[in-house]
Amino acid sequence: MTTNILIKRQPLGFPWPTLDPFLFCVHHNDAYPRGNAALGPDTSLAGRNIGQDFSGKDGWSMYHGEVVAGFPAHPHRGFETVTIVREGLIDHSDSVGATARFGGGDVQWLTAGKGIVHCEMFPLVNADRPNPTELFQIWLNLPAKSKMAEPHFTMFWHEAIPRLRHADANGKTTLVTCIAGTVSGLQGLPPPPDSWASEATSDLAILTLKMEPGARWTLPAAHAGTRRQLYFFKGSKLSLAGQTVDVAQALEVDSSQAIELVNGDAEAELLLLQGRPIGEPVAQYGPFVMNTQAEIEKAFSDYRRTQFGGWPWGAPDPVHAASQGRFARHADGRVEQRDSLAD
């Protein structure tokens, strides 16, 4: 069996390391308490650096939120955000007039393109019990030809996301969730039109894997030139083509070969990001990602001049009512309504 399938391993920190075409990946996992009438934490916020709280105190952070945890209005240009909400809820609002509440396995894919301002708040809707919230946010670069595309946001509701439960010869199962790309006969939902993921040759994929103790599953080979990284974020030990690795590592692997994954004695979870590199220069400053420093300076100038369309909401951190279920209202007025809150 090939022994050089594991190219590089790195510890998972904050943020997680990424490969072109991905720019950023962070895992938020907060054990929020019960909510108050304002949908914030029903407890004292004393001892926190409010507005810049990444402390993890008591198992959770307020981030940039002051009343409700989360990220009040902030701009982006030149890339996309993919937000995978594994547990809890996010209230989204943006400068083009769209708003949403999503969670419990839903995914939002936002093309910032030429510029958008949005907020991502974490409403604590349960007043009688804790509000655990867990999500991945991934930044996916845009090629130069698409950096000034019109902003666009897409919802992947969890009921529609393709999943496969594979049982190995011993009956041990691996749950594969295909958010983007193609794997083992699963085809992800269509990405936004200007995304690198929409390029026929990008070979882009975003997957999550949940493996029972002792489960075996083979990840098929990718196309030539694709780079692939596995994030082993929950479990104990995992074998990749005979090489044993510990949890809390980012694993760059040779995508040209199929890889047998064999889980250890604890339930394991992994995130997979792969794609053919865009291979263009990256100039980044904060929330703007372009190809040159001059383009970064223009992004700041444009934002100061236009506010990327302005902010149509009455506050920088709006949230919906506690009783509001999952929904999305798009900039064109189209509404996607879910019947109830995600389980």
From TrEMBL:
Cofactor(s) this protein cannot do without: Fe cation
Gene3D superfamilies for this protein: Jelly Rolls
UniProt-recorded Gene Ontology molecular function terms: metal ion binding
This protein's record includes keyword Nucleus: no
UniProt cofactor note: Binds 1 Fe cation per subunit.
Domain (Pirin N-terminal) ranges: 64-140
InterPro entries linked: Pirin, Pirin_C_dom, Pirin_N_dom, RmlC-like_jellyroll, RmlC_Cupin_sf
Amino-acid positions noted as binding Fe cation in the UniProt annotation, renumbered to this chain: 74, 76, 118, 120
Domain of life of the source: Bacteria
Protein keywords: Iron, Metal-binding
Residue ranges of domain Pirin C-terminal in the record: 207-309
Pfam assignment, any one: Pirin
Family as reported in the entry's similarity comment: Belongs to the pirin family.
PANTHER family registered for this protein in UniProt: PIRIN (PTHR13903:SF8), PIRIN-RELATED (PTHR13903)
UniProt-recorded name of the protein: Pirin
Organism of derivation: Rhodoferax lacus
